[in-house]
């Protein structure tokens, strides 16, 4: 097979270039670029480099100073290897491009200096071979993808721990392993690149994916790669808001773009002031002195009333874990229907010491969110806040509150996430909540507040509607059994990631 770049669209429409094809293409994308340079006395190298700092060649993985190595000697026989060095200058200074750099004031000053040591300073040049290793991912893909077919470079991705997640459009399919490998090679810290191969289709909000590039070696034998049915490469650890979260990206829902919403809700519920490390240390010391875990808890929460939260669709715990690990006055009842999410919720609870010593602040459940809320009511748990973050159908879950049997002097704040239109979406979302509660929400009396969470697609936003449970639900007939809710909206939650224009 003859290798050429750009890599042609394959005749067989199902053909996918193997990643080895990238290796064959690498020599073809190398180019030699000549940079201006100067020869200087070796003993003055550091002071001259400091003076020319702003106009030195600046290319990743390349030095700007050369001793007389064999290859330099070949290209410039006038250098005395023992006493001289070559300093390579930028060729892309906006005011002094290319050879004009010799007219730069810093260079002219050097040439005009009367110091005898500088008498031998002279102009030179240096050939730089720029290859795959020195290009950015955009530059590599711009050279490899045929411009007549593609106008954009699919180089944008989301990072989840050591994993990069991309959503490639179908036309990039023949190049998917090459694109994955280029992203992996060019981004430190990334060890696996996965491609979303379909839309969110199930109630657990997970989506099908494939691995495009993988640099993570299984710890022992390949048999370890699929431990407990989990591909270890998709097991990641992420940090958010001072907490660590473990998750299996293939099996549970996680969206790093929700980090600000997670933090907003945590602040809304618990207040902004977190115990700083300093305060924590002081509290720990006090607790130790009094030899009681309980004292510590009381001293930290004495000024704040206890807050109870019911998180009906908690996922792996991005609300519940910070609320209970960082605030001593918050207790959370957290639930998720997905057994895998429940598993990681428990793991993350332990990892972040949500329940510690005598403190039991995070209670975990694995059931349908509506039956979970009903159970809390039946068990007499008085919650101050309810979280329902399941945007496609959460407003429909509100029928659980019809005929609510709780304490109407202590009506909880409910925070419901949903998708709605960009234009008029706030109003539509509030009405949808009212319809499912079985009574209208009063904007003032029920303290209704709609927050725009994020842009989802050209016509759709994600919102969070917060309100105090309206007294009107008391008069509505209770729902006894909750069936499956089928969402008729496009369930693909995320818009396509932005792409960059293909470079000429
Ligand atoms: C959009 S995710 C949000 C998870 C988490 N709150 C977050 O911010 O990452 C929705 C979660 O609801 C869970 N879920 C789906 N149907 C459910 C149900 N009927 N009852 C409880 N949880 C449900 C899914 O498994 C998923 O973890």
From TrEMBL:
<dbReference type="GO" id="GO:0070901">
    <property type="term" value="P:mitochondrial tRNA methylation"/>
</dbReference>
<dbReference type="InterPro" id="IPR029063">
    <property type="entry name" value="SAM-dependent_MTases_sf"/>
</dbReference>
<feature type="region of interest" description="Disordered">
    <location>
        <begin position="484"/>
        <end position="504"/>
    </location>
</feature>
<dbReference type="GO" id="GO:0052906">
    <property type="term" value="F:tRNA (guanine(37)-N1)-methyltransferase activity"/>
</dbReference>
<feature type="region of interest" description="Disordered">
    <location>
        <begin position="272"/>
        <end position="303"/>
    </location>
</feature>
<keyword id="KW-0539">Nucleus</keyword>
<keyword id="KW-0496">Mitochondrion</keyword>
<protein>
    <recommendedName>
        <fullName>tRNA (guanine(37)-N1)-methyltransferase</fullName>
        <ecNumber>2.1.1.228</ecNumber>
    </recommendedName>
</protein>
<keyword id="KW-0489">Methyltransferase</keyword>
<dbReference type="InterPro" id="IPR025792">
    <property type="entry name" value="tRNA_Gua_MeTrfase_euk"/>
</dbReference>
<feature type="binding site">
    <location>
        <begin position="368"/>
        <end position="369"/>
    </location>
    <ligand>
        <name>S-adenosyl-L-methionine</name>
    </ligand>
</feature>
<comment type="subunit">
    <text>Monomer.</text>
</comment>
<keyword id="KW-0808">Transferase</keyword>
<dbReference type="GO" id="GO:0005759">
    <property type="term" value="C:mitochondrial matrix"/>
</dbReference>
<comment type="function">
    <text>Specifically methylates the N1 position of guanosine-37 in various cytoplasmic and mitochondrial tRNAs. Methylation is not dependent on the nature of the nucleoside 5' of the target nucleoside. This is the first step in the biosynthesis of wybutosine (yW), a modified base adjacent to the anticodon of tRNAs and required for accurate decoding.</text>
</comment>
<dbReference type="Pfam" id="PF25133">
    <property type="entry name" value="TYW2_N_2"/>
</dbReference>
<feature type="binding site">
    <location>
        <position position="389"/>
    </location>
    <ligand>
        <name>S-adenosyl-L-methionine</name>
    </ligand>
</feature>
<dbReference type="GO" id="GO:0005634">
    <property type="term" value="C:nucleus"/>
</dbReference>
<dbReference type="InterPro" id="IPR056744">
    <property type="entry name" value="TRM5/TYW2-like_N"/>
</dbReference>
<feature type="domain" description="SAM-dependent methyltransferase TRM5/TYW2-type">
    <location>
        <begin position="157"/>
        <end position="471"/>
    </location>
</feature>
<comment type="similarity">
    <text>Belongs to the class I-like SAM-binding methyltransferase superfamily. TRM5/TYW2 family.</text>
</comment>
<comment type="similarity">
    <text>Belongs to the TRM5 / TYW2 family.</text>
</comment>
<feature type="compositionally biased region" description="Basic and acidic residues">
    <location>
        <begin position="272"/>
        <end position="298"/>
    </location>
</feature>
<dbReference type="InterPro" id="IPR056743">
    <property type="entry name" value="TRM5-TYW2-like_MTfase"/>
</dbReference>
<dbReference type="Pfam" id="PF02475">
    <property type="entry name" value="TRM5-TYW2_MTfase"/>
</dbReference>
<keyword id="KW-0949">S-adenosyl-L-methionine</keyword>
<feature type="binding site">
    <location>
        <begin position="336"/>
        <end position="337"/>
    </location>
    <ligand>
        <name>S-adenosyl-L-methionine</name>
    </ligand>
</feature>
<keyword id="KW-0819">tRNA processing</keyword>
<dbReference type="InterPro" id="IPR030382">
    <property type="entry name" value="MeTrfase_TRM5/TYW2"/>
</dbReference>
<dbReference type="GO" id="GO:0002939">
    <property type="term" value="P:tRNA N1-guanine methylation"/>
</dbReference>
<keyword id="KW-0963">Cytoplasm</keyword>
<feature type="binding site">
    <location>
        <position position="262"/>
    </location>
    <ligand>
        <name>S-adenosyl-L-methionine</name>
    </ligand>
</feature>
């Amino acid at each position: 097979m003859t290798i050429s770049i750009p890599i042609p669209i394959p005749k067989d429409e199902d053909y996918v270039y193997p990643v080895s094809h990238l290796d064959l293409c690498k020599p073809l994308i190398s180019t030699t670029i000549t940079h201006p340079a100067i020869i200087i006395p070796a003993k003055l190298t550091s002071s001259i480099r400091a003076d020319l700092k702003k106009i030195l060649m600046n290319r990743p993985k390349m030095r700007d100073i050369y001793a007389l190595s064999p290859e330099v000697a070949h290209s410039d026989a006038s250098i005395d290897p023992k006493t001289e060095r070559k300093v390579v200058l930028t060729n892309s200074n906006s005011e002094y491009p290319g050879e004009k750099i010799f007219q730069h004031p810093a260079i002219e000053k050097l040439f005009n200096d009367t110091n005898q040591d500088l008498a031998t300073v002279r102009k030179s040049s240096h050939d730089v071979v720029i290859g795959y290793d020195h290009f950015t991912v955009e530059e590599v893909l711009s050279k490899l993808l045929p411009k007549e077919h593609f106008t954009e470079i699919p180089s944008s991705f989301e990072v989840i721990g050591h994993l990069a997640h991309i959503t490639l459009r179908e036309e990039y399919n023949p190049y998917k392993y090459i694109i994955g490998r280029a992203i992996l090679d060019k981004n430190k810290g990334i060890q696996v690149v996965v491609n979303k191969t379909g839309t969110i289709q199930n109630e657990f909000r997970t989506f099908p994916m494939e691995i495009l590039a993988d640099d993570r070696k299984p710890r022992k034998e390949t048999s370890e790669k699929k431990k407990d049915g989990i591909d270890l490469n998709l097991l990641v650890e992420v940090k958010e808001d001072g907490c660590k979260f473990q998750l299996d990206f293939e099996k549970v829902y996680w969206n790093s773009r929700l980090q600000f919403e997670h933090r907003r809700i945590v602040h809304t519920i618990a207040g902004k002031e977190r115990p700083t490390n300093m305060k924590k240390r002081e509290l720990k010391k006090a607790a130790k002195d009094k030899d009681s875990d309980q004292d510590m808890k009381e001293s930290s929460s004495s000024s704040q009333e206890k807050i109870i939260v019911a998180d009906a669709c908690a996922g792996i715990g991005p609300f519940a874990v910070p609320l209970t690990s960082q605030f001593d006055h918050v207790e959370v009842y957290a639930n998720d229907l997905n057994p895998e999410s429940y598993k990681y919720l428990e793991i993350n609870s332990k990892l972040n010491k949500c329940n510690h010593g005598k403190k039991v602040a995070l209670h975990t459940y694995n059931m349908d969110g509506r039956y979970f809320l009903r159970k809390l009511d039946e068990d007499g748990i008085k919650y101050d806040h309810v979280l329902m973050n399941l945007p496609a159908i959460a407003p429909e879950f509100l029928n659980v509150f019809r005929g609510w049997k709780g304490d109407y002097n202590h009506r909880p704040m409910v925070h419901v996430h949903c998708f709605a239109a960009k234009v008029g979406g706030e109003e539509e979302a509030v009405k949808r909540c009212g319809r499912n509660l079985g009574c209208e929400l009063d904007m003032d009396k029920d303290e209704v507040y709609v927050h725009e969470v994020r842009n989802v697609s050209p016509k759709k936003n994600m919102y969070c509607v917060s309100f105090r449970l309206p007294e009107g639900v008391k008069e509505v007939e209770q729902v006894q059994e909750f069936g499956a809710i089928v969402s008729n909206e496009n369930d693909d939650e995320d818009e396509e990631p932005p792409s960059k224009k293909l470079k000429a």
